[in-house]
């Protein structure tokens, strides 16, 4: 058993969760098109990619089931596992020898970077985790940032203002320096999950990954950037983010819509390292793997923070319709009339990008959109149970918002039973014996 992406692919293969594609495929649209068709189904390994020796994987963590395999858990215990890893985060071991040192290149065209969507400006690396030093705290930071290839030495790099990579970049710029970084592509998905989690300032997400991997993660220090990166990564890139250059880019985001054209910082290549028989990982923006990777760690975070404020919180779901980013359903065992409003406030506080929160009782399945709408239809009155928070900081992604100033209007819906109404009015009527009855005994 290895604790890298190859070990995870072996597990998927054994569980019948991996489809191997031998047909020759193009990095331009074709890999993206096949991946979009299997969304919500199997992981894909493309073995024969035109003009490259690299193989390509996609849809790695594209279902909750595979997400559970990635964190060594079961679907119902994902939040508990992630919350525990955050709590017990521990330092990975440093080893001198790294598998990715087997090969080197100084040309970004070595990599099979995928062109995904019709109107994007070029090929994007979408599974890239960036490692940099937090200068204030002296720790290392990991974050997902997508990279648009400009030429053989440069990427433009999408940074969300105020997030940790952006803060370290601004710090470097203010000190008249470029920011040295390392980038990994093709790691065990537990590392990607930790990288997608927004840990507190100064906390190293790789320590969470180490815990998710039962303390088996090893890191190796790089010669140029001095970053410690997963030793068993398929590909590592080193370089610097230039303090004084920008490039216009726009890409498809989690909402599967085109972002507006942004001037983004430019990365300059120092060196690429990669393993023998390397595998490149591509994540199709706006599809299952992307939304699960970004959304599930946030779900766990909201769950953890809500339970502090409101121990009667039962479950938290970021909905698929809300792209696992903008809409949440919170299930509570309501004890006081004020509980739902408390839940709404705490949920918005835990995830700044959120736009819509619906609170339901514990007899409503928060992952079932029909059940949630039923709760709204039967337990919600817009004049008393609706919370509107106008023009506050929201997600940079939502095209209906004021995207330049990052302002949006948020909505909280209390769809729980009111204590001041007759309780049978909310009781979902049962038919004695219906639960256990088998129709096979009646209809042949
Ligand atoms: C660029 C982002 C997500 C993605 O499409 O992968 C992050 C957006 O973060 P906000 O804080 O919601 O702007």
From TrEMBL:
Cofactor: prenylated FMN; Mn(2+)
3-octaprenyl-4-hydroxybenzoate carboxy-lyase-like C-terminal domain ranges (all copies): 292-415
Domain 3-octaprenyl-4-hydroxybenzoate carboxy-lyase-like N-terminal, residue spans: 9-85
Pfam assignment, any one: UbiD_C
Alphabetized InterPro entries for the sequence: UbiD (IPR002830), UbiD-like_C (IPR049381), UbiD-like_N (IPR049383), UbiD_Rift_dom (IPR048304)
Domain 3-octaprenyl-4-hydroxybenzoate carboxy-lyase-like Rift-related residues, every copy: 101-286
Protein name, UniProt field: Anhydromevalonate phosphate decarboxylase
Lineage of producing organism: Archaea, Nitrososphaerota, Nitrososphaeria, Nitrosotaleales, Nitrosotaleaceae
């Amino acid at each position: 058993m290895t604790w890298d992406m190859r070990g995870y692919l072996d597990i998927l293969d054994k569980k019948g969760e991996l489809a191997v594609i031998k047909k020759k495929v193009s990095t331009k649209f074709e890999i993206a098109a096949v991946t979009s068709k299997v969304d919500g189904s199997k992981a894909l390994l493309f073995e024969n990619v035109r003009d490259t020796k690299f193989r390509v994987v996609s849809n790695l963590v594209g279902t909750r089931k595979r997400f559970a395999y990635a964190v060594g858990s079961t679907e119902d215990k994902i939040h508990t596992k992630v919350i525990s890893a955050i709590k017990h985060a521990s330092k990975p071991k440093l080893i001198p020898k790294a598998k990715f040192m087997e090969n080197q290149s100084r040309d970004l065209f070595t990599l099979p970077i995928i062109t995904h969507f019709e109107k994007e400006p070029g090929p994007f690396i979408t599974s890239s985790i960036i490692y940099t030093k937090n200068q204030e705290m002296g720790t290392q930071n990991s974050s997902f940032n997508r990279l648009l290839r400009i030429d053989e030495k440069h990427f433009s790099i999408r940074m969300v203002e105020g997030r940790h990579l952006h803060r370290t970049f601004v710090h470097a710029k203010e000190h008249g320096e470029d920011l040295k970084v390392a980038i990994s592509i093709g790691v065990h998905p537990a590392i990607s999950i930790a990288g997608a989690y927004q840990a507190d300032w100064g906390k190293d997400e790789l320590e969470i990954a180490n815990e998710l991997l039962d303390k088996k993660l090893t890191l190796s220090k790089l010669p140029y950037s001095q970053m410690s990166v997963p030793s068993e990564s398929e590909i590592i890139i080193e370089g610097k983010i230039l303090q004084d250059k920008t490039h216009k880019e726009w890409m498809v985001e989690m909402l599967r819509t085109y972002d507006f054209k942004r001037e983004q910082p430019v990365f300059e290549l120092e060196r690429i390292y990669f393993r023998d028989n390397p595998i490149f990982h591509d994540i199709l923006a706006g599809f299952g793997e992307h939304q699960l990777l970004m959304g599930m760690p946030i779900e766990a975070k909201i769950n953890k923070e809500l339970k502090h404020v409101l121990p009667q919180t039962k479950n938290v779901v970021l909905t698929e319709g809300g792209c696992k980013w903008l809409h949440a359903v919170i299930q509570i065992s309501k004890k006081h009339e004020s509980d739902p409003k408390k839940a709404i406030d705490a949920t918005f506080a835990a995830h700044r990008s959120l736009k819509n929160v619906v609170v339901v009782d514990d007899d409503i399945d928060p992952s079932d959109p029909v059940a949630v709408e039923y709760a709204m239809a039967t337990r919600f009155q817009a004049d008393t149970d609706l919370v509107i928070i106008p023009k506050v900081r929201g997600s940079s992604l939502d095209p209906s918002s004021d995207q330049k100033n990052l302002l949006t209007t948020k909505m909280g819906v209390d769809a729980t039973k009111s204590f001041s109404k007759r309780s049978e009015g909310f009781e979902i009527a049962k038919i004695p014996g219906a639960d256990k009855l088998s129709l096979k005994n009646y209809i042949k």
